[in-house]
Amino acid sequence: MNDILLELKNIRRSYPEFDLAADFSVAEGEFFSILGPSGSGKTTLLRLIAGFDRPDTGRIFLGGVDITELPPHRRRVGMVFQDYALFPHLTSGENIGYSLKIMGMPAADRRKRVDELLHLTGLSGFGRRDPSSLSGGERQRVALARALAAEPLLLLFDEPFSALDYSLRRRLRAEIRDIQRRAGFTAIFVTHSQEEALSLSDRLLILSAGCVKQIGHPEEVYHEPSSPYVADFIGEINRLPVRVAAEGLYIEGLEGEILLPHQRSWQQGRGFLRFRPEEGVISLDGDAEAAVPVTVAARTFTGPTVTLSVQGGGWRADVLSLGGQAPALAAGAMGWLILPLRKAVFEPEDDETGMPDRTQA
User: From start to end of the chain, where are the E strands?
Assistant: First the structure.
């Protein structure tokens, strides 16, 4: 792993709505996302890092230097805002070079740097264009180039795609990640979109009501959530009521008892079997070891995938399949849910803290 660039140590900030607590670090060259619902404290964290707010306790270090008390203009931190914040009376090139002009960089050097950034962001030839003549994606890339102009140590993104349509958001995600890899800058990306955080990040942080719930690589957070909250927040999750006994696993609510094998590490008692929709399988026969009889409640076609919502004895589960691999079952049809017992997690009843701790940076 690269050297640590940013460290937040014992940060605390109190508000009437919640108390923010954060301890984490970001490596040099890393694309680090902060993911959470509205009001979780994501923008507050950015404001603390950028210098627009001060923590009540704790210290912030950037490149080994304590920047906790430094004003924003002395932190070498750039920021890309939701609404671009471009000057409408300046051309794209003038917007990009504005901070360089304020810094007193000679005009020739400034033009060279602006041309480099226009090329980096795929905007060569756009320097004389007014922001009003650009598309939303082009304006966002001008904002990115402007933020990079002064060569910040760290670049902050505050939900930069929230005002764009879905197809443009997808394209810009790929473009910004490519620019970040080529330029090598360190980025912190704030979003409420799980798709953005999972697809962009080297690592991500899950935030809820000011508390860090988990930090890890996207695959780790998705497949090994540290708590039921994270499991529910990241993607979709099925929860089947079950009872673990010495002789095996019983699915609650079904007519007659169905005994299934279980992981020996699971504690005995009632609880929930948790698994992702794409981990289950719907079959037309029940010969598999972990097959449970179900009725199809709904079939949802989305183009590349098909989701079958099935029910059995008061509970409901979703199973996601590639369109060509989904069984031809319509609503009301009978089938078998093959449970992914090797991948599933047993959550004891009323236990919200039994999963392993994965909140450390």
Answer: 4-14, 19-27, 31-35, 57-62, 65-66, 77-80, 154-158, 186-191, 203-208, 211-216, 238-245, 248-251, 259-260, 269-275, 281-283, 291-301, 305-312, 315-322, 334-338, 345-348
CA-to-CA distance for 90 and 104, rounded, in angstroms? 18
Over residues 208-235, the mean pLDDT reads 93
pLDDT of residue 260 exceeding 70, the answer is yes
CA distances from 283 to 89, 103, 265 (A): 63, 67, 28
Q: How far is CA 39 from CA 13, 100, 172, 257, 266, in A?
A: 14, 35, 25, 45, 36
Task: Give 29's DSSP letter.
Answer: T
- 140 close to 168: Cβ distance less than 8 angstroms: no
CA distance 154 to 76: 7
State the CB neighbour count (10 A cutoff) for residue 216. Answer: 22
Output the pLDDT for position 1: 57
Is the pLDDT reported for residue 331 higher than 80?
Answer: yes
Query: One-letter amino acid identity for 142?
Result: V
Structure confidence by residue, pLDDT tens digits, 154-211: 999 998 887 778 888 888 889 899 999 999 999 999 999 999 999 999 999 999 999 9
- Show the domains of the chain with their CATH numbers: 4-232 (3.40.50.300), 236-346 (2.40.50.100)
- Of all helices (H) and strands (E), which one includes residue 152? none
Assess contact for 309 and 302: CB atoms under 8 A: no
Cα of 44 vs its chain's centroid, Å: 17
Residue 8 has pLDDT above 60, yes or no: yes
